[in-house]
């Protein structure tokens, strides 16, 4: 199995690679650099594609296209990194330092404002606002990493107020985390017909912006831990290789 992991920034990519050292450098068209892990049960490439859904989609599409043209297509794309956790509540939320695996990768603010409130782009007759990873794969990866499962909301502007946090939580019931790249990665993966996952570790609370309360180092450490468990979960989900057929 070949897996492409897409993060926003180098620190997240390096946290992924720390679970699978050594990682070799591979340069893609356009100057993107992959880190390619060796010696794992699955082949894992990590890419820091940039911040936000547009950069994430562009970088993911570049890597998927390059792999396909080389005759080595990916079997899975994983959007990964740190993110904000919604306040814990019944069936929702995620505390600092925890791991979240998305069962829905949601575009949180793709649509239009109206006198009656926010209108998602689907109600305007365009596109999609959610990608749903394979449930069996989500369960296996979450069980292996000790993660919570729930929607992860992709936004273009990080939430910085209690009112905005409450609005997003009401619009997306059960949301566990907020991040900026998952939906862009999922759109590119869908365009290439490749399954997608999103794994987030929680560095801060969704709400009023308080950098002093952020736990970025802890979240990056948790990301490394989650990716140490990923190859085993993927291998177990894939099952044993088929026996060769002899006529």
TrEMBL record:
Enzyme Commission number(s) of this protein: 3.2.2.26
InterPro entries, per the entry: FL_hydrolase_MqnB, Nucleoside_phosphorylase_d, Nucleoside_phosphorylase_sf
Keywords assigned by UniProt, alphabetized: Glycosidase, Hydrolase, Menaquinone biosynthesis
Protein name from the UniProt record: Futalosine hydrolase
Domain (Nucleoside phosphorylase): residue spans on this chain: 49-209
PANTHER family: 5'-METHYLTHIOADENOSINE/S-ADENOSYLHOMOCYSTEINE NUCLEOSIDASE, FUTALOSINE HYDROLASE
Gene3D superfamilies: Nucleoside phosphorylase domain (3.40.50.1580)
GO molecular function: hydrolase activity, acting on glycosyl bonds
Short name of any one Pfam family annotated for the protein: PNP_UDP_1
Function: Catalyzes the hydrolysis of futalosine (FL) to dehypoxanthine futalosine (DHFL) and hypoxanthine, a step in the biosynthesis of menaquinone (MK, vitamin K2).
Record gene name: mqnB
Superkingdom as given in the UniProt entry: Bacteria
Protein family: Belongs to the PNP/UDP phosphorylase family. Futalosine hydrolase subfamily.
Pathway named in the protein's UniProt entry: Quinol/quinone metabolism; menaquinone biosynthesis
Gene source species: Streptomyces nigrescens
């Amino acid at each position: 199995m070949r897996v492409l992991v897409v993060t926003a920034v180098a620190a997240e990519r390096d946290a992924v690679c720390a679970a699978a050292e050594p990682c070799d450098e591979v340069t893609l068209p356009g100057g993107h650099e992959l880190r390619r892990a060796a010696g794992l049960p699955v082949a894992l490439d990590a890419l820091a594609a940039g911040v936000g859904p547009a950069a994430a989609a562009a970088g993911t599409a570049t890597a998927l296209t390059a792999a396909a043209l080389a005759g080595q297509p990916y079997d899975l794309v994983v959007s990964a990194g740190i993110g904000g956790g919604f306040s814990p509540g019944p069936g929702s939320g995620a505390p600092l330092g925890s791991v979240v695996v998305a069962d829905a990768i949601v575009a949180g603010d793709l649509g239009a404002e109206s006198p009656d409130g926010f209108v998602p782009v689907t109600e305007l007759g365009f596109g999609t606002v959610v990608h749903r990873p394979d449930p069996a794969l989500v369960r296996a990866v979450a069980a292996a990493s000790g993660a919570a499962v729930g929607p992860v909301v992709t936004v273009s502007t990080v939430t910085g107020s209690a009112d905005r946090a409450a609005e997003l939580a009401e619009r997306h019931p059960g949301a566990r985390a907020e991040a900026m790249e998952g939906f862009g990665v999922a759109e590119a993966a869908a365009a290439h017909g490749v399954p997608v996952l999103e794994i987030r570790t929680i560095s801060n609370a969704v709400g009023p912006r308080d950098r002093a309360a952020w736990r970025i180092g802890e979240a990056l450490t948790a990301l490394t831990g989650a990716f140490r468990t990923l190859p085993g979960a993927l291998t177990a989900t894939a099952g044993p290789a088929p026996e060769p057929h002899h006529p």
